[in-house]
Amino acid sequence: MAGNIPSGLLEACLVLGVSNERLKDIHLTQLQGKGKEPLVEAEVLQVHAPPFVTKESSSNGTQQDLDSAFCRGQRRRSFKKKRDRPLSTISDSGQTNEPVVSGSDDLSVPQNIDLIALLQLCFPDGLRITNESREDSYHFLVFTDVFGNQTHGVVAQYCKPVHYQQDNGIHQNSQQLKKLQRLYTTFSICVISKYPYYNALRDCLSSFLLQLKTSRMCDFEEQVKEFSAKMALVPIPPPGPLNVVFNLRPFLIELPSRLDVDRPVMDLDLHLPFLCFKPKQILQIISSILMEQRVVFLSTNWAKLTLVSECFMVFIHPLRWQHPFVPVLSRQMLDFIMAPTAFVMGCHTSHFEEVAEELDDLVLIDIDKGTVSSSTSNRFDLPDVPLTAKDCFIFRAKGLQLHYDLDVCDAASRSDINDQRAHRRQWQRKVNSVILNVSMELIVNIFSEVCDFLNYEHRVFNSEEFLRSREMTDHTFYKKVLDTHIFHSFLRDRLNQRNDAFTRMQLNIRSSESRRIKTLTVSPRRPTMEAINRKFVQPENGLNRRLGMSMPNLADHRLLTVPIRQTSMGTMTFQSAGSWSPSRPIKTFKLPDFPPPLSYQYVQNYYNDLIRDLSKAISGASPDDSALLARYYYLRGLVNSVAGKRLDALTDFQSLYKTDMEIFPAEMLNVLVESLPVEERKTAERRPDLKRLISRVKRESDRERARPVDGGSVKRFKLPKKHLHMEDFVRRVQESGIVRDQGTIQRLFEALTVGQQKQVDPETFCFFYNFWKESEGASQDVDLPVVVLEHLETDECVYKLSSSVKTSHGVGKIAMTQRRLFLLTEGRPGYFEITKFRDIEDVKISSAPFLLLRIPTLKIKTSHRKETFEANLKSECDVWHLMIREMWAGRKMADNHKDPQFMEQALTNVLLMDAVVGSLQSQKAIFAATKLAYFDKKKHEVPTTVPETTSETLKHKINPSLDQTAPQAVDILLYTPGQLGVSELDGGGNPKLWCALSDGKVLVFDAASWTMQHNSVQVGKSRLNCMLAVNQQQLWIGSKDSFIYIINSRSVSCNKQLMEHRGAVTGLALEERTDRFSQTLAYSCSEDSSVIVWDVSTLQVKGQFRVPCVRPQSLQIHNGMLWCCGGDCLLEVRRNGTVHRKVSLPNHLLSSPRGFSSFLLFNESEQLWAGFADAGELCVWHCRDLNKPFIRIQLKDCTAVVCMIRVKNQIWVGCHGRSPEGKTRGKIYVLNKDRYTVEKELMAHEDSVQTLCSAEDRYVLSGAARADGKIGIWKVE
């Protein structure tokens, strides 16, 4: 595991070429005239790898246990030169001119590097002794081990003259001698690194070659070793807005950091493929890679092979190539192309014919000519990417600005080379950012809707349904891609809910209307009228968004309707930078100058200088710039760890929890903790902060080891082959994607097992599934005349269409949408509206005489028409009767409870009824379908009407658990106001509603439209107890696991934690600054009675004390004093923690096991209101004199007070109540704070009210416990 301690920039440096003995033999051959420019075999002449400095004794003679030069403890493979006689190294005097290593020495190289292959790769077109000098050249290598780990190499080839004397003595770069004959030999210096810093390492080698050419040959090996040691001292920057810069004269070298934790280092010029290929060819190459073809890049330039192929690996992110990747093949390695697996390889163009003749299914990509062809033909025979994604990509690519000279043609010439290089890097960074967005948008356009066909609970992908949803022209492409390893890995990441660049751009690209699909309703997949309209009218590019800062008008029915299906992504307005792209300038940190001699003392001084500079940078950084601070702490922790200052390193990494825990190096820290000597371990255990860190690192390490090595399995949905009991049936239906709600599936099980043993046989399940999918497909093919479309809303879908029947208004087909019934007349196409579901007064079945028969007839009576609508539906009459009654009941429930989900649930029940009847095809089918008539039965069991006061006050309800299989408790709600001047890329300026569900899940709603704004944010695994907005950028959440999680309210990401509490965090309070120079303080309490005072800007602990109460539950600042609500009392506490006043439980509640539950304080009236966990009453004290008799307010039908808030002149109280039937009910009481009277009693939820929050005193939002799990939005008067 020691290999996880990060190395520096350099992993190894090798020198390859021809030994002096071999050069002598070549010279003799040339003198005899036996050849010109002979091809010779290269040898490994030098290998340099860390550690370069050994441990030394300190001045007092004690041995210091210090690691040096970024050395690692990983085992290395030895490579011994095999020659007939031992070769000696260069002597210090320089008398021996043989730059080779002694045969007794082991060449220490990384374990995954094959030196035999490396010799061929460093000289891919062979090594020749020439009569003319050649220019220096560079190319790049990639090595992959059996586990898929990559190592990267940069090779510099340079020519050195060799002088021959007639006595066969050899002198290189020596003084002029008589009768000389000159030849040139090529050496390769290969720098190997774990990180693909191609440009930076090329610059390093360029700088080194300038120095090497002016030095003596006797110093050659020492100079290479010194260069290698310097490279090993360069730390790798963590992901984020900080690059590392170091001086390697004459250049300043910059190491770019990763843009994202999930991305590799990207030190490439991503515009190179766009200079070599047209957009169409780029798409063909991407398509070949996505379909895992055997791809061969060809070029006459070895450097292009790696750089261009690596660019395409970046373009397909977050998909990762899983097969052999060898961008450079020497002539001896061409047989690799015969491999029977998918691969990406590269070779010289001169081998084109040889490669093309060997195999028939190669994709040949000529970089120099910009062509893509097959080895069997000159054309590209594979399917293209989907058309919409293709058109969008080509459009974006045409707008790219790819020529640096054009951008700087009006700029002044720069005299300083480093200034010029910095300007070029800045331009390249900008171009790369745009190209990354273009390529990521392509991947999102291709695979975005894959997520809609995933079942996260059972880790199933319904590939057949996904294919059915694609355009027919795209089926060939998707069929090939869906069976690949890279797509399987992509699915695994989606099921693991990885928050990577793909996820973030997917969220950015979706419009607010699309987000409403996941927020308010989940409709079965049917085409909306808008989708049908697109057949006739081209929609405008983009959709309107609410940009206002105020709260929405909830009377606007457009906000509450069923959402439309997302339009083609090719039509979406493009944002130039996704949330994963840096939105601010990149900072740089310059390393100290490298130590001149390779000695232990100087290396330690270098580390000390580096730590000192990082400490200065930390003290000089703004506390608000936590992202930059985190990178400084990371680098200082890294340097401290390799310098042997382990405890200091632990302290630095501990600071990441308060700055940016996203870059927390868990593996490295685990190695560091395990390497602690006994004395240092004891010292760390005596420090509470380090003890907690060590404990958590060990816990996370154990949890990581318990996780599946492959990241979890991914299953494809398949129909069952054996009988299904209830549990298996629920799982299968959820996997199919038909419905997720367990209660609905259980009713479906009852319907399919009517009159038989309680298990569903595979044939019945298959018939039901196929009928459901056929009905879904039939609705996709509905072709309504334009005259009909004019009468329907854009978001309406036709869910059911009858056969042609005779009605009281002519012959036609009855159509059902989620809002209405209408008749599609035959003959001359026409539209007749039968009724909207909310207007139905009665539905019944009768019979109409026809000759000697009586035909079943459906009669529908409506409020807006006197005559009754009749339809001779014959055999369809019973099922239509059931469906219409269910939709009617669902509509009434939805209107009465202001909850559109009731209508959606009724619609799902209706479609399941239809599928049950269609699949059973028996006399019991109608009776079976009645098992699904949930709302029609419910309206007879309980009254559907809502009390008038509740109905008038309630504006709307939201179900945050739509994606779940069962409702989740809404534990906390918090409203944050909008912010002017905040861009859409920075989180948007609209107000937000934060909703904490069970098990640490936080949802974010756009409170200007009540639509879900982001995917859920996971903050731990425990229940969340409290939430506080401390400023415009920080949201603090107290958890049962004793942590305070800090969410960035703009980026909606949790990357900070406060871990000082020992018990569940139950309360948070904020003390505003009294003036511009004072600190903002926050207070937190935990159930172990401790209170911690925090400096909000630095997140440092300013004070800590304990309060003498049982189970503190909440805090509030009042008149400069801290009030704490405990189970047994209310305390007024001074800043130093001493108790000022105490309010005990009233005498009549002393036997209450839980005591106080909540409290409120008012400045203007000096009142203290308190509620109780075991009593349905409130007590009010006068703050000025707590000894005065308190006022008791009884709450009717209330058994417990859960929460309270103040809104204007009212007190809103959330309670646990009971209905007259004895069922649990969540009630809200609205009280007048001056009269102490109940003004309103609201029947809020079907379970207790867990939380209340105010939205700018215009609305109150309530969250219910698990049995209800909904959010109510209430109007404030």
Automatic annotation (TrEMBL):
It is found in: Cytoplasm. Residues 72-501 form the UDENN domain. InterPro entries: cDENN_dom (IPR001194), dDENN_dom (IPR005112), DENN_C (IPR043153), DENN_Domain_GEFs (IPR051696), TPR_DENND3 (IPR057977), Tripartite_DENN (IPR037516), WD40/YVTN_repeat-like_dom_sf (IPR015943), WD40_repeat_CS (IPR019775). Residues 76-103 are annotated as: Disordered. GO terms for cellular component: cytoplasmic vesicle. It comes from the Eukaryota. Residues 88-99 have a biased composition (Polar residues). Keywords: Cytoplasm, Guanine-nucleotide releasing factor, Phosphoprotein, Repeat, WD repeat. GO terms for biological process: regulation of Rab protein signal transduction. GO terms for molecular function: guanyl-nucleotide exchange factor activity. Pfam families: DENN, TPR_DENND3, WD40. Its main location: cytoplasm. PANTHER family: DENN DOMAIN-CONTAINING PROTEIN 3, DENN DOMAIN-CONTAINING PROTEIN 4. Forms oligomers. Interacts with 6 of the 7 known isoforms of 14-3-3 proteins. This is DENN domain-containing protein 3. It comes from Carassius auratus (Goldfish).
